[in-house]
Amino acid sequence: MTEELEREPETVEPYYNCSECSSPIEITYLDDINIGFKCFNKNSPHKIELSIKEYINKMKIQYKESNKEKCMINKHNKMNECYCLECNIHLCEICLKSREHLFHNKINIKEIIPKENELSNIYNIIQDIKNQDLKNLYEIIYNTYNNYNCNYYYCINMNYILNNYIEKNKLIKERLNNEEYNNIIKIQNIKKENNKNYDNDTLDETEDNKINYKKEIINLKEDIKNYIKEISNIKEDNIKIYEEIKKLSFIQSNERILTNISKIINNITNKNTIKGLLDIKVDEIENNIVLFNSNNKDGIDVYINNKKVNMIQDKHLWKIDYKFEKDGIYEFQIMFNNLHTNMCGFFEKCSNIISVDLSNFNSENVTDTTCMFNDCNKLKEIKGLNNFNTSKVKNMKGMFQLCRELEYIDLSNFNTENVIDMSFMFNKCNKLKEIKGLNKFITNHVKGMKAMFNECTELVNLDLSNFNTENVIDISYMFKKCNKLKEIKGINKFITNKVTNMCSLFQECAELEYIDLSNFNTENVTDMQHMFNKCNKLKEIKGLNKFNTSKVNNMKGMFSQCAELISIDLSNFNTENVNDMSFMFNKCTKLKEIKGINKFITNKVNNMHSMFQECSELEFIDLTNFNTENVIDISYMFNRCNKLKEIKGLNKFITNKVKTMKVMFQLCEELETLDLSNFNTENVTDMSFMFNQCNKLKYLNLLNFSIKCETKNMLNFQQKSKCQFITNKKELLEIYNSTH
Which of 105, 303, 494, 670 could crosslink 333 through cysteines, CB 3.0-4.6 Å? Predict the structure, then answer.
């Protein structure tokens, strides 16, 4: 048991105790002027407010008077660590072990003692800002005042001279309206110009001279009126500026108002600041943290928790020269002394940023926001986007790409009338649920929309009703993997005359049931691979029968895994330039009819791998027009077409270049006849499982087959009646006989 010792009385209240009840205190708020506290008194906590300057002074005095760093029990000779809330005394390490305080509520002194140096620094920073703002204010107002002042006195003098001139020439003033006199003066002047020896007494009057001179007088009088009006306006402006100077004197004498005015001045004249929050894990920091990317070397100041820090520039990367001592959330502030025009990749791959506030950033001259927040994979919030001025921006490519934690973006004030590229703009924003203002986008000049919403897996609706796509060239991957997307409003109005790429346009839009593409013009499209791939719930594609595919060279996986499609009308398809049809109807498990397949031109096709694989409802296919002379791969072509009874045109297949026929007819359980007499298999390297489980096959003609390849389970099917097997190859006959 620890020896109980008498404690010396604490005579002086420590600066971190309440002045009312001596209970410990904690800071509740801190602004530019004041600091607020509340104490830990259980019965009635006291609230205290002091100015920062007062608090610092009080702190210094009380700290000097009270030597409370060490325990008041001299024999302990230990530093105080805690404060007992029950006994209102300080405790050291030894005191803590006594039974007296064992079950009492205690708090750590280090947690509640504000650091004097930190507060002093805050106060000094505030004073510096105030002084700088005051200086700026003087410069702004006095410069303007001096300009007006000079103009004012100049005008006063000119006005005086004019009035003086008129006073001295009363006779002229009286005769201004005298037509005859005006005419005389005019003629005299003309004569003087033409003849230096002109005699004033000889006058030569004409009607034209009278009319012209009258006009001159009217103009002169009008000029005098305008001049007087201009002087009056300058006087009014001068009075306004003088009033501002008077306000400045008042501001200078009042510190609190000065601070508020400083903030206003900052917001108005220096409205070019980006604020935000950093999530710091000290153990994960290997080198200095990259805060932003910029080629601009000058005019940028950075503050961390209101303390100015140095920045280390590594090419375009700007790293914080700041030692983070503990884990936590840190505030950052980036101040631009000049208007920034290029925000390309500004926060790219800044993985520690969780929040950005653009409310006070002046973006009026910004022309490029490409990849501005690209790969900010912890960014949860972007404030001030609704006031972001994008009127001059031309490129928004990848602006929010890979912002995986963003759930909401307000772009209601975005002016996109000059934007040319929006590709990858929201690419892989996996948690994004709403994009406010998208329905107001002006896209008249946009050429690229590639992967614009790719992998926005939480989006349910998109309103693109205001989109003008008449100049767009690429819409590939635009909605790929938007697997919760149920509606794309405005897609039926898309103008696609210039589009050349529709690859994976709707791929994996697993919730889409209906798409109206009746307005689509596909005459210039060259790539349609995976266009509707894995649209598992898609039941109807309106306008497909009007597609112009004359320039398309790739249809790989175009309708693959459209498991709800029952019928497709491809009667208008021109496939003369297509070179890849692999997986085209793969796993269309409910597909019963492919209208127009009998007209397909396949002269250039080199791949038909898995083309009709798992079309388990198809009973008949007419391939009489198929030209397979360039095809290399027909493996899995009809694999698992369980109900397929007839494949018309197989007997005309040219297979000279085919290298693999693996699993070609596997599990075609309803097929009874296969005439492959025209098949040339000299270059085939794999025929394994080719007719595996074709259990109803009654006629199989392999007359021209040659065997130079893998044939595992090639003829593995069970016959209920003897199959008529036609071949001139002993090897094939042996395989057949050994299996049956």
Answer: 303
